[in-house]
Design goal:
Number of helices: 4
Number of strands: 7
Distance between the termini: 20 Å
Shape: globular
Strand order of the largest sheet: 1-2-3-4-5-7-6
Order of helices and strands: EHHEEEHEHEE
Radius of gyration: 15 Å
Helix content: 10-25%
Largest sheet: 7 strands, mixed
Strand content: 35-45%
């Protein structure tokens, strides 16, 4: 049973605190990202096609950053707090249900660096399919890494 609740968040302080959490930011940033202290989601809050979705179950479990590529293709980034890690699958399914039920999205996609096996496994368990590999497309610690493209259809 999935008792996770998804809420569109407009609180920049809350979003920034989750994204820059020390157990999250190293995995969602690359060598071109700002430092955690400089990260600021404020300019994107409330823009059309951009969604910061907090997830509760009942406590705050993290957030998903979702943005539109086209009217039907949306990209998702996962930022789940350590206390959620045992409930990650429930959280990802709740996010997908919310996006498919509240937007024009027909397909969700995400990029996962090949070194992030945990994120890759979570995406696969959540129903995403591996749709390909982008060679040397993610710069992390001075090394170009490959990234998996994964997708989930409505």
């Amino acid at each position: 049973r999935n008792d996770c609740t998804v809420v569109r968040c407009m609180d920049a302080k809350l979003v920034n605190s989750i994204v820059t959490h020390p157990k999250i930011y190293p995995f969602v940033s690359d060598d071109h990202s700002p430092s955690p202290e400089e990260y600021d989601c404020s300019p994107a809050l409330g823009l059309e096609g951009i969604y910061y979705l907090t997830i509760y179950g009942p406590d705050l479990l993290g957030l998903f950053f979702v943005h539109m590529h086209t009217g039907t293709l949306f990209e998702v980034h996962t930022c789940l707090l350590p206390k959620c890690w045992g409930r990650s699958l429930d959280a990802t399914k709740a996010c997908a249900d919310w996006v498919f039920g509240n937007t024009s999205c027909q397909k969700l996609m995400t990029w996962v660096p090949t070194c992030n096996r945990l994120a890759y496994r979570l995406a696969i368990k959540s129903g995403m399919k591996d749709e390909g590999l982008s060679k040397k497309s993610h710069l992390k610690n001075g090394v170009l890494l490959d990234m998996h493209l994964l997708g989930l259809e409505k």
